[in-house]
Specification:
The strands form 2 sheets. A 5-stranded mixed β-sheet has the order 1-4-5-3-2. Strands 6-7-8 form a 3-stranded antiparallel β-sheet, with no helix packed on it. The N and C termini lie far apart (about 50 Å). A hairpin with an 8-residue loop joins strand 7 (about 95-100) and strand 8. The model has no long low-confidence stretch (mean pLDDT about 80). By secondary structure, the protein is α+β, with helices and mostly antiparallel strands. Helices cover about 25% and strands about 30% of the residues. It is elongated. It is built from 2 helices and 8 strands; from the N terminus they run E-E-E-H-E-E-E-E-E-H.
Amino acid sequence: MRRFLPLPRLDRLPTAPLPVEGVFRYQGEVVPVLRLDVLLDLAGEGAEPNLYSPLFLVTWQGRPAALLADRVHGDTVVDPAERTPSDPALTFNGCAVGAFPDRVTGRGGTVTLLDPDRLLSEAEGRLLDAFRAVAERRLAQWRHSQDAASSADGAA
């Protein structure tokens, strides 16, 4: 994980697949926002995204992506000796790579460690790349229109 971010204003595109809440620009790149509740089939368990919904900015296949959660209880450094490996055969695409003791929420139990690169299947990854390319072209058209309008205003 690169960092936590507050939920920015998202551009929602009509061709977005269900797990994609929208896109935003971060350091010059289009960042798709993926809903963890949809990806993990937890529909109906979380709140609708709002201004206070946290994002986890991650690197997915070398490019930024953001995972939308309903809340964050905190963050913690976990000693590798405390991590228990997970059996990849027991989770979708082997996305759960381990677990560690929950010391943040006060509820006990364990926290599952997810690998962002494994949250999507190969086919879903190709679709997300295609969607990102469409979003980049679409946003570039708006930027080109704004640049043209600014130039026309300056010439008047």
